[in-house]
Amino acid sequence: MRTKILLPETKLSPYLERVGGTPGEPVVLEKFPFTLGRNESCDYQVPSTRVSREHAAINKDGRHFRIKDLGSTNGTLLNGKKVAEALLSDGDLLTFADAEFCFRTPCNESARVTVTHVMDGGSVAAHDNDLQSEDRAARDFILAVRSLNEGLLHRGLRTRFQPVVELATGQAIGYEALRRIENHSGEVPAGERVLQSVDCRLTERWHQLHRLLAAEQAAEATGANLLFLNLQPAEVGADGLPETLAQLQSRLSGKKLIAEIPHSAVVDIPFFRDFLSRLRELNVGVCYAGFSSGQNQVRAHEQFAPDYLQLAPALARGVDRSTQRQQQIKALVEAAVAAGCKIIATGVHSENEAQTCRELGCQLAQGDHYGRPQTMQWASLA
C-alpha cells in the first residue's frame, strides 16, 4: 500500500480574477503595495474612465492582505460596501467603479488531499471526508449549467407576479415580477440555486430573459399600471442597462417600469448617482428594495431618493404585536415622506399587519395577504 499527497493546482501568489466583461488572465500580485488605476504607472492599469488615475492599492500585512482606497472619486467597494481600508479574505469581491475583481489567495497546507492506493485490488480510497460531497456538488453544478443553457434556448423560465396594493383601498397599483426556475416536482434544484447567486455571463442572460418575458406578459395584460423588475447588485451601474430598461418600458403599452435596486447596492458615489440620473432621464422609475436600516439612512439618501422604498419583510412580520417595530416603521415613513418617496411594506401576511402598517402611514403593501406570486395574467390577478 502506498500513500501519496495530492497538491491542488494553485498559484504561488495571490491574484485577482476579473468578474464580468471579457475574461482575461488572472492579475498576479507579485509586489506590494500593488496599485490599480487608470495611470500607466500603476501596477495594473484598469481601462475605464470611471476608475481614478490611482484608485486603490493592495498591501501585504504579515500573512494577511489589505485593500486601501487612494482617495478615488467613485470609491472602492468590498463585497458591496464602501471602504477606506479593510482586510481581504479569499473570495472577496472588489469593485473599483465599474471594474469588478475577485481576490484569491494560494491554498494552504490543510487543503491537501491524501489518497491511498491499495496495491492488491487496484482500487483507490480517498481519505478526505468531504471528497464525495465535493464530487456531488461539482456534478450538480455541471447539471445546473446544462439545465440553464437549455432553459435559455427554449425560454424555459416561469415568471410570477405578486401584487403591490394601495393600503387605503386594497386595489393593486402594480405587480412585482419574480423569477422562478423549477424542476418537474416544482422544486428549485440546489445546483441551480447556487448558480443563480454567481455573477457570470450565463446568469446575466437569465436576468435579461426574465425581464423580457415579464415585460411581454405585462404588455398584454390589463389592470394595474406599474411593473417592478429586480436588478442584481452586480448589474447596478452596468453600461447600457438604463437604455435596455427604457426599451422594455416602451413595450409595456403605457405601463410604467420600476427598477428595483437592492438597498445593499445603494452607495453615495458619483458612479451610482450617474446611473440613477440616467434612469431618471429615460423615465424609468426607481425603488430601493429590501430596506431594513433606520430613518437616518433614509435622510442620507435624500439627494438621490427613490420613487419607492420597499421595506424588508421582517419589519412587517408581526408588526401589530411589536411596539419597537411600529416605532421604527413610523420613523421611516416620516423620513420617506420628507424625501418624497412612498413606502412599500412587504411580507404582510394578515389583516392585522396590514391595518397596523396603514395606521403607521405606509401607502403601499405586498405579501401573501394580498396575493401570492402567480403565473396568471394580471387581469385575473386583480
TrEMBL record:
Coiled coil: none
Molecular-function GO term, any one: cyclic-guanylate-specific phosphodiesterase activity
Tree of life domain: Bacteria
Gene3D superfamilies: 2.60.200.20, EAL domain
Domain EAL: residue ranges: 141-382
SMART domains, A to Z: EAL, FHA
PROSITE patterns cross-referenced by the UniProt entry: EAL (PS50883), FHA_DOMAIN (PS50006)
UniProt-listed Pfam families: EAL, FHA
Domain named FHA: residues: 34-83
PANTHER family assigned: CYCLIC DI-GMP PHOSPHODIESTERASE PDEF (PTHR33121), SIGNALING PROTEIN (PTHR33121:SF76)
Name of the protein: FHA domain-containing protein FhaA
Source organism of this protein record: Anatilimnocola aggregata
Lineage: Bacteria, Pseudomonadati, Planctomycetota, Planctomycetia, Pirellulales
